[in-house]
Amino acid sequence: MSADPGRPAIDGVRLLHRYFAGWLLRQFAVDMAKPLQDKLYRLAQAASLAVEMKHSCLDLDKATSLQEPQLATLLAGIDQQDLAALARHPLPPLVIDAHSRRIWLQKYYWFESSCAAMLQQRASQPAAPLTAAVHAYLDELFAAGEQKQAAEKALQQRLAVITGGPGTGKTYTVARIIALLLQQDEHCRIVLAAPTGKAGQRMKEALDMALKQDSFARVSHLLQRLPEKASTLHKLLGIGRNHPRPRHHKNNP
Fold first, then answer.
1. Long-range Cβ contacts of 7-11 (<8 Å, 24+ apart)
2. pLDDT band with cut points at 50, 70 and 90 for residue 73
3. Which of 69, 72, 95, 250 is such that its CA lies 20 to 30 A from the CA of 119?
């Protein structure tokens, strides 16, 4: 069964994606040349499928590495020039980037853009200057190196992202950042959150183990203020199953 009678269905591609692509053609591409219509029909399905695969957009540069047979079939014969040609047509449900390499469903483009803007705003806001006591404690907790640099930068900014593969010392670094934050302001509120409950539990266990070291003796009385367990991000923001809008936002932090 095809959502567009004039075009064949591709095995494994859900009817939802085909209906979206068929609706897009009927609403916005009636006057488009048929060869480009055919490519738009497949691209719209691919963009919708990419969201189902948990990507915020369809990236042509990375699509082949995903090794998704349905995606590969939908994108066969479609290139940057096709996206550039489609970008010249008004297609409000889709957003094509300036380099004609990525395509978003409009809603997810707005989600991604607004999230990026908020992160940039927070990253541009400096934190309070470090006290002499915190500087001394930083030297005590870290030898010179990338971990110390990451911790110092995290303490001087309102937003920090620490990345690294397994065993590179992320938990080690974060545990020390928490101790330093408490040394800087013993009344600061620490919240632990992760995408899933299981990930949160693992994070809490790893932090508890790291914070048992003698290095944290001077703030041991403050570590009792850490939450007993980590929350999920959804629960922290107040996003429920039946109300996708968060309870906590910029006007209700």
1. 7/38, 7/41, 10/42, 10/45, 10/70, 10/73, 10/74, 11/70
2. very high
3. 95
Q: Provide the 10 A C-beta neighbour count for residue 194.
A: 17
- Determine how many CB atoms are found less than 10 A away from the CB of residue 46: 25
Q: What is the largest CA-CA distance in the chain?
A: 73
Tokens representing residue 223 in the block: 């570590």
Task: Compute CA 48 distance to the chain's CA centroid, rounded to the nearest angstrom.
Answer: 18
List pLDDT tens digits, range 90-123: 999 999 999 999 999 999 999 999 989 989 998 8
- Six-digit token pair at 111? 């989600």
Q: Which residues, 6 or more positions from 183, have their beta carbon under 8 angstroms from its beta carbon?
A: 133, 134, 137, 218, 219, 222
Determine how β-strand 193-194 pairs with β-strand 231-232: parallel
Per-residue pLDDT, 6:
64
Buried b (16+ CB within 10 A) or exposed e, 195-230: eeeeebeebbeebeebbeeebbeebeebbeebeeeb
Question: pLDDT digits over 203-250, tens only?
Answer: 888 888 887 776 777 777 777 778 888 999 999 999 887 777 889 988
Please, are residues 231 and 193 in contact by the beta-carbon 8 Å criterion? yes
Residue 191 near residue 160 (C-beta atoms within 8 A): no
Q: Are 51 and 106 in contact (CB under 8 A)?
A: no
